[in-house]
Amino acid sequence: MSDFQSINNAINKRAGRKLGPSILVSLSLIALIWFALAYHREIFAVVVAVAVLFGIREIVRAFSAREIYISSASLVTGSLGLAYATWNGGVAGLAIATAIAIPLLLIQLLTKGPEGFVQSATATTFSLLYLPFLAGFLILLARPSNGLARVMTFVVLVGCNDTFGYIVGVLFGKHPMVPNISPKKSWEGLTGSLIFTITGGSLAFNYILKMHWWIGAIVALMIVFTATCGDLIESAMKRDLQLKDMGSLLPGHGGILDRLDSVLISAPALWLALELVKRWS
Predict the structure, then answer these.
(1) pTM of structure
(2) Residue ranges of domains in the chain
(3) pLDDT tens for residues 190-224?
(4) Please, what's the b/e burial string for 35-72 (b: 16 or more CB within 10 A of its CB; e: otherwise)?
(5) Would you say 176 and 183 are in contact if contact means Cβ atoms under 8 Å apart?
(6) What is the sign of the dihedral through the CA atoms of 147, 152, 153 and 159?
(7) What pLDDT was estimated at residue 151?
(8) What is the DSSP letter of 132?
C-alpha cells in the first residue's frame, strides 16, 4: 500500500494532476461506453454527440478568449446534423453532411460583416472538422453488428497508449520529444506507449475481434502514432491560445477536449484499418 502511495505521490507531483480522480473518471467513461453499446448502439451515438457538444462549448470559449468569433448555435446544429447523418447514412452520410454544413456555416458568418471574416471562417471550419467530423468515425465504428467489439478494441488501444505512456513518462521520462509543444511528453513515455499498446492491441484483436494477433500489433503501431500526434495537436492549440486545459469538466483530465485529443485523430485510423482488413480478408 505504501509503495502504491509513493508512486501515486510521484505521479501527482511530476504530472501536476491527481492520479486517483483521473483513474475514476476513465473507468466511469469506459463503463458508460460499454453500457451504451451493450444496451443499444444508438445510445452510443447520442453519447458521442453529447461529448461533441461539450467540446464545442470548450472550443468556442477558447477561441473567444482570443477574440475569434464562432457561432456556437450554428456549430451545435451542424454537429447534431453530422451525428444523425453518420448513424443513418454511414461514411457517405458523414461526407455529405460535412459538405453541406461548411458552406452553411460560412454563409451564417456573413451576417457578422467582413471584419474578421477570414479568421472566424477558418476557426469555424477547423472546429467542425476537428470535432463532429472526426468524432463521426467513432459512430462509424459502432454502426455494424459487432460495434461493441470494435469500439471496445479502440478503447483498449487508446487506453493503453494514453495510460501507460502517461505513467511511464511521468516516472521515467527524462528526454522530451517536442519541448516547445509539450514539455512533459518524453521519448520514455512513447516507448511505454509502444510496448503496452502493441501488447494490448494484439490481445484485443485476438480475443475481442477474433482476428490475427499480428494485425492488432500493426494497427497498434498506427494508433500510437495517431494518438501521439492528436495529443500534440491539442497541446499546440492550448499553447497558441495560452491555456493550460481546454476546460475543467473531467477531474484529473481537464476538459472534454483534453480527453478526446488522441481519440479524435485515432478513430479514423482504426476505422480505415478495419475496412481494409474486411476488404482483403
Answers:
(1) 0.89
(2) 40-143, 145-281
(3) 999 999 999 999 999 999 999 999 999 999 999 99
(4) ebbeeebebbbebbbebbbbbbbbbbbbbeeeebbbbb
(5) yes
(6) positive
(7) 95
(8) I
